[in-house]
Each structure stands twice: as structure tokens, then as C-alpha cells.
Amino acid sequence: MNRIALRHVVNMPRELEPGILYVSPEYGVAGHLCACGCGNKVITPLGPAEWTFSERGGQPSLHPSIGNWQLPCRSHYVIAGGQIRWAAAWSEKQVKAGRHAEELRREKHYRSLDAQRGFWNRLRNWISSVFTR
In this structure, are residues 32 and 71 in contact, taking their beta carbons and an 8 Å threshold? Predict the structure, then answer.
């Protein structure tokens, strides 16, 4: 399978069709069957600290890459412009480093949200929580 089509949904269907990327903006999630053909469902959360979804001319892109390290197939690919682009397999050391980088990216994102909220907003929320218990 070299191509993947896009289907917008509200809820993920129970049964996924091969070659379809299902995207639910309402729930911030995308799902598809593994591109290798093994039949496993691959669900990816969408958001600033997770995967990003884009669409151009009805063709889906999902970044960063999909690394199915927990599946027996251990497939690794990128969905770009409706195409499956295969990537190199990763060693266990690379997988651990990738997971660590993801964690750091999430922490940075949530720290920036806290900083945007500012000290006075955090103080006001804390005081409010103390008095509403």
C-alpha cells in the first residue's frame, strides 16, 4: 500500500478499512490500519504536543513519523500528501531516545502554557481552589 485516503469522522469506526486515514478533529484523534498490512489499528492523538494533521487537496499528512515499535511488525513510516513514505527501522536505543524526545516536547509545551497563564492567574486559581473546597 503506497497511498492512503482521508475520511473525516466524528467517532472512530469500530472496523477500519485498509488504506484510509480516519480523522476526528472533534476528538483530536486519527486512526488507520498499519501501513504494512498486518491489520493492527494505529491510533494517534492530535495536538500541539502530539501528532499534527494537515490536509492539502484532500490528501492527508500526519507528522511526526508513525513508529509502531510496540507491534510485532515494528513498521516505521510517514504519511505525507496521501502517500506512505517508509522510514528506516529503529534500534531499541533509537526508540528510547525518540520516546524521551517526545516526553521533553510535551513537557516544554505544557510549561509554555503555564508561562502564558502567568503568575497572577495561577495565584488567583490557587486561591479560588482553596476557598471552594
Answer: no
What would you measure as the largest C-alpha separation in the chain, in angstroms?
58
Tens of pLDDT, residue by residue, the chain (133 residues): 589 999 999 999 999 999 999 999 999 999 999 999 999 999 999 988 889 999 999 999 999 999 998 899 999 999 999 999 999 888 889 888 888 888 888 788 777 766 666 777 767 777 877 777 6
How many C-alpha atoms does 77 have within 13 Å on its Cβ side?
23
Q: Which residues contact 81 (CB under 8 A, 6 or more apart)?
A: 56, 59, 61
Backbone φ, ψ for residue 88 (5° rounding): -65, 150
| Confidence (pTM) | 0.76
